[in-house]
Specification:
This protein is α/β, with parallel strands linked by helices. Helix content is about 20%, strand content about 35%. The chain has three helices and eight strands; from the N terminus they run βαβαβββαβββ. The strands form two sheets. Strands 1-2-6-7 form a four-stranded mixed β-sheet. The longest helix is centred in the middle third of the chain and has 17 residues.
């Protein structure tokens, strides 16, 4: 699947900078391509859609994180197989701003469901939602940037 078939939008992140009421950050991913391909990747061997704990969300930088124009690849993967479910290009500053909001949300609420919400759609039709607490950031060499990642306390990697 081509990365340009995906669009990504975020909601509920401005409250952090405005010192507003905490709202769970949400990432909306819409795929505008052949639905069978993405549905197959979002499903396990039994044909059921994967649960949140069967997926991982990561961001792999394509340049230094200190580069103001740095971009990278947001990925959702199947935790069991390691296969990519989807990938799309995104600016690093936008991803880091999202993680900042998710970290603040986790600190300021007692929400045990997760620190952020992922909603995946195909051609505008909702397919699956995930409540997530972890979002890992890797540099261009594939090394985990722990200080920039969203890792709940008590989680060992």
């Amino acid at each position: 699947m081509r990365r340009d078939y995906f669009t990504l939008e975020v909601e509920n992140i401005d409250w952090v900078e405005a010192d507003g009421t905490p709202r769970k950050p949400t990432v909306l991913i819409d795929f505008e391509g052949p639905s069978s391909t993405l549905r197959e990747r979002l499903s396990g061997p039994d044909g059921d859609l994967l649960d949140a704990d069967e997926t991982d969300v990561t961001f792999r930088l394509q340049a230094s994180i200190d580069d103001a124009d740095a971009t990278g690849v947001v990925s959702v993967t199947n935790r069991t197989t390691g296969d990519f479910i989807l990938e799309l290009n995104q600016e690093a500053a936008d991803v880091l701003r999202f993680i900042k909001a998710a970290r603040a949300y986790g600190s300021e609420t007692d929400d045990t469901e997760g620190r952020y919400h992922v909603d995946i759609a195909i051609n505008g039709d909702h397919v699956v939602s995930y409540e997530k607490a972890t979002f890992l950031i890797y540099n261009s060499e594939g090394n985990l940037l722990r200080q920039h990642s969203l890792i709940p306390s008590g989680v060992e990697l």
